[in-house]
User: Fold Type II toxin-antitoxin system SpoIISA family toxin from Gottfriedia endophytica.
Amino acid sequence: MNITFMKFFIILNVLFLLISIILYWWRNEKYIMYLRGIRKTYYFAGLSVVLIGYGWGRINNTDWKLIGTMLGCIVFVDLAIFLTPNITKLFNAEFQNEQLLEESLRKMKKTVDHVTLKTIQFNSVIEYSDYHFREKEDPKNNEEYKKDLEEYLSMYNDVFQYDMKVHRIDSSTVEIRDQHMQTILQSFQMWSNIEIPGKQYEENVNTLLQEKILVVEIDEYIIAYSEGVHNSFLIAIKSNGSPVNGVDAYYIISLCRTFEWWMT
Assistant:
């Protein structure tokens, strides 16, 4: 038996299992989703090592004990680690898919519940708008306009404990607007402590101009662009409790337009 090659085989197994364990704890859903592919990759890698060893002369034709040990190790690891079988489900690999389905359904229900709450709060703000603006004086300048807008948006954001930054865009020309948006994105980066590579600022501006929403970090941080008739704003929304998503961005944009309508 070629002891050196067997040690090499064991080291490769340990590395593969270490990467798999890290994936399992770091991205459990991805691990479950791609488990079949991980198993196929493991079998392919293991058999490839055996064939390479045979081709390079590390394994002789008479080393059936070594070959059997290596192949047995591959099968054992698959059953003991990747399938994690129990007495009732040893021959039923479908439980992996059931686990993924249950997890997906739980997340879907949670998402639907969040969206429902956000819709209820958005409608509440709209219904309250008539009373809110009835006693409001018209803002005298841009700074007062922005301050009043922040106060209005807080009726939505505060319920979900979102942190928010609002910046008015200078849209006197297209060039000034685009440059101003890039500058504001840089300030948002400092505020959120989430790095945005400089070369992406122009791409992000184009995304905001076209789609009105920029997802910086899923469930954590989004930027909305509200383009009004008289005033345009970039609004950064950061989660401080409930996950933040595109629904929030669209509602914030709608509230900005509602605010502008009341102010004109």
About this structure: The chain has nine helices and four strands. Residues 33 and 205 are 34 Å apart (CA to CA). The chain has two domains: 3-84, 121-263.
